[in-house]
Amino acid sequence: MSRDEFSGFFGVLVATVGSAVGLGNLWRFPYLVGQNGGAAFILIYLAFVLIICLPIAISEFIIGRKTRANTVRAFQILAPKTAWSGIGIVGVLAAFSILAFYTVVGGWTLDYLVRSVIHIFAKPDISALESQFTTMVTSPVRPIVWTVVFMVVCALIVMCGIKKGIEKYSRIMMPFLFLMIVILMVRSVTLPGASEGISFLIKPDFSKINTSVVLAALGQAFFSLSLGMGCLITYGSYVPNKENLTKLSFTTALSDTLFAMLAGLAIMPAVFAFGISPQEGPGLVFIVLPRIFAQIPMGNVFAVMFFVILLIAAITSVISLLEVVTAYVTEKLKLKRTVAVAGITVIVTVFASLSSLSQGVLKNVTVFGKSIFDFFDYLSANILLPLGGLSIVIFVGWYMKKSLVYQEFTNQGTLKGTLFRTYYFIIRYIAPVAIAIVFIDLILR
Ligand code: TRP
């Protein structure tokens, strides 16, 4: 049986952008911007995306398409009988680790979507909304049920395969997602008092910049572009040979960044217009936004729209994480896709239930001094991704034969490859040093 493939440039692009655009853009980015000085943080973030992350994305695609295999086997093919395939194994573990908390937030999103449809938000008062949120996330059964529902939806999509599953649903959902975030953005920037929020996003205040802000920007760029754990290696293995990997990576990075900006513009002006602190942190979307929606005309419509956006963004990211594990399990154990996905779903549900319970009844159970939920978050974003990213650039820059990399970069010599020298220089020298600095700092923190 021939291996499944994306149908063409647009097909790969919607799937990859779907993976990249997620809770990282809608929830993490705005609150990091809020805490780290607004526009100055954004400028640094942009520089990292362009200089460091873009070349890493290209590298992951090169590994994947060259080998047409799952992320573990890809390294076994390129570096037989070496320890390099450990990068793939760590990637698969990272997928489980991200899924274990990400799907829980997916469950919360479903809960809030239903609430916004049937109008059951607490009175527009921050403390009531806060306790409503806390009651929901700490209860033992309810968030787990939602998490399972969320997981099942994602699993069903992945079961349908690449072209008929991931690509097909991304094609439907992603354009809709961009349309809705634009509408929400327009609503937000036209609120009376929005200008303060806008200037927060475009007027840099460099006095807020210090090393930890710089490092937060690099970490966020990694997470947001789905780098460092073989996600793009896996997607790359389904990219047709004629597609230009540089163009694909560039368009993905651009769309993801654009979406993050739109999300910032949709959220920050509203936050400022209602006199709420931009430093609210992780509770921003679940506590602060419902308050804003409660106070604007047709707020309920916008609330539903916002949680639909959050839901779609989360689904298209989770399917990419599931696919990393699915490709590995189906190819390694020669299982049918449906069976593999079902098995993986059960395992993820167990971990996700633990991290959901750690918000409430299991609050006192700690792993390395963190709740289970925070542990999975920390382990993946702060340890496994930087480690994976670092290994990948060293692998492509120093282990793989340069000619092999060049061949794949230029589609076997059919593209000009003008940017190859710049790309190769970054991969060999700049990216490894930059990531090593971030990694060490995050560990020490
Ligand atoms: N990029 C997604 C977001 O911004 C999350 C995500 C999906 C991810 N796949 C990944 C992060 C792989 C790291 C690695 O929400």
Model description:
This protein has one domain: Amino acid/polyamine transporter I. A two-stranded antiparallel sheet has the order 1-2. By secondary structure, the chain is an all-alpha fold. The mean pLDDT is 91. The site of tryptophan (TRP) has 16 residues, from helix 1, helix 2, helix 10 and helix 14.
Summary tags:
single chain, 445 residues, mainly alpha, Amino acid/polyamine transporter I, two-stranded antiparallel sheet, 18 helices, 1% strand, binds tryptophan
* CATH level-1 class: Mainly Alpha
Give the fraction of residues assigned to helices: over 70%
Following the backbone from N to C, one meets helices and strands in this order, namely HHHHHHHHHHHHHHHEEHHH
**Cα Rg:** 21 Å
Q: What is the CATH third-level topology name?
A: Amino acid/polyamine transporter I
Overall geometric form:
globular
The CATH fourth-level homologous superfamily? Amino acid/polyamine transporter I
Kindly name the structural category.
Answer: mainly alpha
The residue ranges in which pLDDT falls below 50 over 5 or more consecutive positions are: none
Strand order of the largest sheet: 1-2
Strand content: under 5%
Topology, number of strands: 2
- Cα distance, first to last residue? 49 Å
Q: Label the CATH architecture.
A: Up-down Bundle
- Biggest pleated sheet: 2 strands, antiparallel
Provide the number of structural domains: 1
